[in-house]
Amino acid sequence: MNKIVYLDAAASFLKSGSVIEAEVEFLRNRYANAGRGVCARAGAVDDMVRDVRGIVADFINADKSQVVFTSNATDGLNRVANLIMRKFGMNSNITVAVSDLEHHSARLPWESLAESNMIGQVLCCDLDENFNIKIDSVPCADVLVVTAMSNVMGVAQDVSGIVAAAREKNPNVIVVVDATQYVVHCDIDVRKWNADFVVFSGHKIGADTGIGVLYIRDSQLYAPDKFGGGMVARVGNDGKIILQPAPEKWEAGTLPLTQICGLGVAVNELRKSRPNLNLIKYMYDELQKMARIKILTARDAAILSFVVDGMHPLDVGAMLGANNICVRVGNMCASWIHRALNIDGSIRVSVGPWNTMSDAEEFISVMKKIVK
């Protein structure tokens, strides 16, 4: 079988042997439900969940009580929209600021609410000539959604500066940060960001699918959006429900325990080994020599996005795939930035810790044949 050159880490990280082995070992030898038993095995699972929560909290500079496990970033972003709407009340005349860098998951919940007249309006932050958010033009809003790194442009945004500018105009603005692409390449400090909510997915950093992280700065300000087992401390004689403190109040039902086990391993591995972005620079330099190729990203970006003159991105992707090279093509679930670029779609190359220079050279070799 020919070797597959996997250059699609930004879509989903490959899983290391350590992550796979940790999950298999958990399923074979240590599985039990969490928060629902008093035997030693159930207690060990409780300890595992608590330990991984601590690993994630340390990873983003948060308290354990602020780390909530979700199914993925999309789940987290939709839940945040629900939490905020429950706080303000439906049909509130609130203003939400977004940008054209947003992934569909970050922006569509608010666009949908605006179309249904459940919020006032959605404003868009201006982008500069390099398609980065212009800090001095961040609008006054009740809610600000910030994508820390676009999955098309691959440049880390100045989240702290953007948030500071927004809070100058409205000290009570609620800040939501989508860190799904950012977390792979840069350290997260939720305290420095001064954000109210931060989300990312486990599968983007080498954990399994079905696990995500939602940081909630102040749980006291919001009422739960999901209800079920595990979140209730007790029911009083008057029938009033007394909830567990955070984070349990946010985690109704059985947690994705196997995926949580793998998440702790993935986070620890990522801290030791980030993707080698010198490979991106090499491929950038080589693609720049090909006349038909227009590169959309900067040389020092975390990903490489481009188009080929006279060819549809799907055709380029199909030809690369026929040569056992995996890349992402299309609009990357980021329609707005493609509209700003005046294109329908693009080809995206991204790398993980497993990629080598020979992978990059093989990609360039095939691209030369495609555009000749």
Key terms:
372 residues; alpha/beta; Aspartate Aminotransferase, domain 1; Aspartate Aminotransferase, domain 2; 4-stranded antiparallel sheet
Characterization of the model:
The chain is built from 12 helices and 15 strands. It is α/β, with parallel strands linked by helices and 372 residues long. The chain has 2 domains: 107 residues, Aspartate Aminotransferase, domain 1 (Alpha-Beta Complex), CATH 3.90.1150.10; 242 residues, Aspartate Aminotransferase, domain 2, CATH 3.40.640.10. The longest helix has 21 residues. The mean pLDDT is 96.
In CATH terms, what is the architecture of the largest domain? Answer: 3-Layer(aba) Sandwich
- Strand order in the sheet with the most strands: 2-8-7-6-5-3-4
Radius of gyration: 22 Å
Tell me, briefly, the overall form.
Answer: globular
N-to-C series of helices and strands: EHHEHEHEEHEHHEEEEHHEEHEEHEH
What's the gist of this structure?
The protein is α/β, with parallel strands linked by helices and 372 residues long. The protein is built from twelve helices and 15 strands. The strands form four sheets. The chain has a seven-stranded mixed beta sheet with strand order 2-8-7-6-5-3-4, with helices on both faces.
Write the layout of secondary structure elements.
Layout (H helix, E strand, L loop, with lengths): L4 E2 L10 H14 L9 H21 L6 E4 L2 H16 L6 E4 L5 H12 L5 E4 L18 E5 L11 H11 L4 E5 L3 H4 L4 H4 L3 E5 L10 E5 L15 E4 L5 E3 L13 H16 L5 H10 L5 E3 L8 E5 L4 H10 L2 E2 L1 E3 L4 H6 L5 E4 L7 H14 L2
Parallel strand pairs: 1-13, 3-4, 3-5, 5-6, 6-7
Antiparallel strand pairs: 2-8, 7-8, 9-10, 11-12, 12-15, 14-15
